[in-house]
């Protein structure tokens, strides 16, 4: 860790999304696909650190982010990406950039709700925060078999401390008031 924050996954994610947020808040600049896909790629390790319960989500998320990153070589903004798929009448087709963007958004929402739940809880277990996040964000889009497999995997989640250690974080921000 040469620069103080060198391997701090959560800090890297925060910085990348601050840049995206400033573009969104400016309301004059469209979101570029390349920095967006880069920021999203930094979230991938979070899924891996959650263990087997989220292995499928991790693989799916990484594939969708990779597709967006590749698309950034020919499509510059998220609006242009959506317009391209609308014009091609492929918005709902499996593998389309817009559908992949939707899946990435759901992955980001899942992580957001997970961390909101972690911050709101004094529990060391991630089972309740992860179950709530999954139920709220991903479960409505999954069939019975996937929901049951994820529910079984919830028992193999790391503790909050183990997760933060895997992310090379010290947890100092996890118990701070909002």
Automatic annotation (TrEMBL):
A GO cellular-component term linked to this record: cytosol
Keyword Transport in record: yes
Domain named Glycolipid transfer protein: residues: 31-169
Family: Belongs to the GLTP family.
Entry keyword Protease: no
Pfam families (UniProt xref): GLTP (PF08718)
Protein name: Glycolipid transfer protein domain-containing protein
One MF term in the entry's GO annotations: ceramide 1-phosphate transfer activity
Organism: Vitis rotundifolia
Domain of life: Eukaryota
Keywords: Lipid transport, Transport
PANTHER family membership: GLYCOLIPID TRANSFER PROTEIN DOMAIN-CONTAINING PROTEIN, GLYCOLIPID TRANSFER PROTEIN-RELATED
């Amino acid at each position: 860790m040469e620069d103080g924050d060198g391997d701090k996954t959560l800090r890297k994610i925060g910085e990348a999304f601050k840049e995206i947020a400033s573009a969104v808040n400016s309301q004059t600049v469209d979101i570029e696909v390349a920095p967006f896909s880069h920021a999203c790629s930094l979230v991938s390790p979070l899924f891996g650190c959650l263990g087997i319960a989220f292995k499928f989500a991790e693989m799916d998320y990484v594939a969708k982010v990779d597709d967006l990153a590749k698309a950034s070589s020919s499509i510059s903004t998220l609006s242009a990406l959506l317009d391209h798929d609308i014009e091609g009448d492929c918005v709902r087709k499996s593998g389309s950039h817009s559908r992949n963007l939707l899946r990435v958004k759901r992955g980001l929402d899942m992580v957001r709700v997970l961390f909101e739940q972690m911050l709101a809880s004094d529990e060391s277990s991630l089972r309740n925060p992860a179950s709530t996040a999954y139920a709220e964000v991903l479960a409505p889009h999954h069939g019975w078999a996937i929901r049951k497999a994820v529910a079984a995997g919830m028992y193999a989640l790391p503790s909050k401390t183990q997760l933060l250690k895997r992310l090379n974080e010290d947890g100092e921000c996890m118990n701070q008031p909002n």
